[in-house]
Amino acid sequence: MELPFAESYRIKMVEPVRRSTRAEREQWIKEASYNLFNLKSEYVFVDLLTDSGTGAMSDRQWSSMMLGDESYAGASSFYKFKQSVREITGFEYVIPTHQGRAAENVLFSVLVKEGDLIPGNSHFDTTKGHIEFRKARAVDCTIDEAFDTTCIHPFKGNIDLSKLEKVLAGNKDKIPFIIITITCNSSGGQPVSIENIKAVKLLADQYGKKIIMDSARFAENAYFIKVREEGYKDKTIREIVREMFSYADAITMSAKKDAIVNIGGFIAMREKELYSKSSVFEIMYEGFLTYGGLAGRDLNAIAQGLYEGTEFDYLETRVRQVEYLGNKLLEYGVPIQQPIGGHAIFVDAKRFLPHVRKEEYIAQTLAVNLYIEAGVRGVEIGALMADRDPVTRENRYPELELMRLAIPRRVYTNNHMDLVAVALKNIWDRRSTIKHGFRIVREAPIMRHFTAEFEKI
Ligand code: F0G
């Protein structure tokens, strides 16, 4: 008999989570104005809001934290961190930041100005936020296949080269760089192939443009390249990571994902000039160059986490757990983005709840229903997150209405995944009874999804 697959770690410390009743959850979500971000985490049984900063650190990471050097300048922790980032990414210059969006803030302060266009593959919302805040525009050049959840394509994060070329050709002086997000969170944790990255690099060189990689889930991207792309199955994850980054001029990193820490990020780059310019904003926004908004112990945890996050056995365990949940849902007939992505399951809410109008926030409606069903917290990635057009202030309705179930790293067991799958199946079975969603009664001028308040329709 073939041995079943099992996790490449064992559990040394546990954290109790509390069960609740449906009546309690109905009350709590109402008090939270039907926004899952407003819920106290103790009211959540399985928290799939995000895989960011929610992972379980290893014994080695915790012990490295005890060796943190908390000096303001020149801490040994910084040098350990820099060594690890250099070794894993291949970049010479490294700037620590308190998380990924802070890296975007510092780097974009140097590179982005009013009127610019930044082409890329479905920019993450903070990335888009930092572009639009500077009165520039993010242009989505993702391949069309990404927007059809039933279409099986091994690299749905890929950039459509003809869309990209059109933007480049028509706006030569307005484009400071191209951004490639690996994996592409917004389209479902979908990877970008080396072949596509190379082709983008060729175009970028032709037009004299930089490539920046938003690399929060770079190791998961490398895993998919290893198992799906021809010619890579015998390469190590670290070899693939070095090749991916060899085509970039700089990267922004949220270390809260693939470096498996609770807080942290960085910018890494090749050129000294960009480093010097970024350093000015770094000191203004984040702190001195050798700590950048982090404690020395956090830098140590990132240094160790980068090594662990790029080990094949860990990545296989990680991605296979996401697949486990996805396959259960497919078995029950629940419509999800396919192929299954690296960090999360994206449920196709339009296909799940065809009776709810897009103006009533379809994916948000599904997420609230799932919470009430089983205390499982997912997140809306649809019209709510797409926000309003910065110029016209009209609501934007993206092609996809998704409910994301992001799996924290090394935290839940497959029993938790079984519970999530059955909870969704129960809602799927009574989906025809769900006809109405929500209306917004209060919203912020930018990134409204975090704080918007709703009422039931
Ligand atoms: N880029 C990508 C692709 C991300 O997914 C995120 C964060 C960021 C940048 C920003 O990093 O949170 O450290 O400031 N994504 C989280 C999520 C919040 O839930 O997907 P951050």
Description of the molecule:
The structure is a single chain. The chain is an alpha/beta fold. The protein has two domains: 22-51 and 312-456, Aspartate Aminotransferase, domain 1; 59-309, Type I PLP-dependent aspartate aminotransferase-like (Major domain) (Aspartate Aminotransferase, domain 2), CATH 3.40.640. The protein has 16 helices and 14 strands. It has helices at residues 22-31, 59-65, 76-89, 100-111, 125-133, 161-170, 194-206, 218-228, 237-246, 272-285, 296-309, 312-331, 349-352, 362-374, 383-386, 414-429, and strands at residues 46-47, 93-97, 117-120, 137-140, 177-181, 210-214, 250-254, 265-269, 344-348, 376-377, 379-381, 402-406, 438-442, 453-456. It has a five-stranded mixed sheet, with helices on both faces. A three-stranded antiparallel sheet has the order 9-12-11. The protein has a two-stranded parallel ribbon with strand order 1-10. The longest helix is centred in the C-terminal third of the chain and has 20 residues, at 312-331. The protein starts with 21 loop residues before the first helix and ends with a strand. The model has no long low-confidence stretch (mean pLDDT 96). Bound molecules: ligand F0G. Ligand F0G is lined by residues 50, 52, 99-101, 124, 126-127, 181, 185, 214, 216, 254, 256, 265, 406.
